[in-house]
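Following up on my earlier thread - several people asked me to post the actual chain instead of describing it. Fair enough. Here it is, all 372 residues.
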Amino acid sequence: MNYSFYMPTRLIQGQGCVRRSAAVFASLGTKAFIVTGKHFARKNGSLDDVTAALTEAGLSWEVFDEIMSNPTIEVVYRGAERMRACGADFVIGIGGGSPMDSAKAIALLYSQEVKEENLFSGSYEDCLPPMAMIPTTAGTGSEVTQYAILTNDAKETKTSVASDLLFPTVAFLDAGYMKSLGRATTIHTAVDALSHNVEGMISKRATVISDALAKEGIRRFRLCLEALLSWDGQTELPLEVREELLCASTIGGMVIAHSGTTAVHSMGYELTYFHGTDHGRANGLLMAEFLKIAAERMPEKTADILEALSMNSVKELGEMLKAILGPEPPLTEEEALRYAAIAVQAKNIKNAPFELTEEEVREIYRKSLVRG
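Reply from S.P.:
Thanks for posting it. Predicted structure:
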């Protein structure tokens, strides 16, 4: 049995942890470059908490709030130029996966010249600035991964900038920032966290440690399932549920940092790129059909996943996902054919211990989303 485990990111968890961490921010540099979206970090109080802590530490900052969902290559190059121009020396990412992934990519591009054709090469100089991440959704796990996922128009999909150099220096976990998240975002990000933990187990890079983490992440998702299924979005989801989901998400990030994702992600990217389907939702729509194949080829691992969910079959998992996600507009046969051809070219589809042919990928799309 040979494996390694590397997790250099410091975790600080609890309500108010950002505001109490002026000394931590002071240890990172003298001027922060804050990467976020237009609205949510202001709405949930996370940006105010960050700037209050920076003020207490005697630090200055610049806010770059141009990050959109599914960030583009162009926006991270623009962010890096802005960071150089303002004289910042460390990065803070606030938000869901899009701002945090963008923050990591900006830190990379700020630190060194990387031509666009080499952006996804994985070969970079070890000179990145310190990075702090503050997740405001529970699903991506980006606060503890070495990945930055960007929209890649040249390949009509999403592609990962990947290097151990992208592991954040520190991550602050405060589920209070998620209180105002709506039902759709809460559920889609929760399913993304589930997908990370599930795919991490169905990976040829899985280890005994990543599997142990994944089972715990799946179990924590299961603890929230009843609350999510019964929640109409009109009332506030209990904070303890938010905290469990955030824990499942961070664990899922640790899992895929070592195992990588597999076919569900590579296939889901096409739904996001071509249809704008939320990332976690896209994963959830495809997960059950993928696991039916995994159950035939990796029955013990699939049984472990179902046990952690307290479920008896992949069919039961599929029914749960349909109930929690609701209906999705169908794909055409032509779309299934096209998306399968793209998905089989992705690096992460090759992470599974078994080969998936293009026809099998097409069948997953068909059985999941083609009607009639």
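Residues 182-369 form a domain with the Dehydroquinate synthase-like, alpha domain fold (CATH 1.20.1090.10). That should answer part of your original question.
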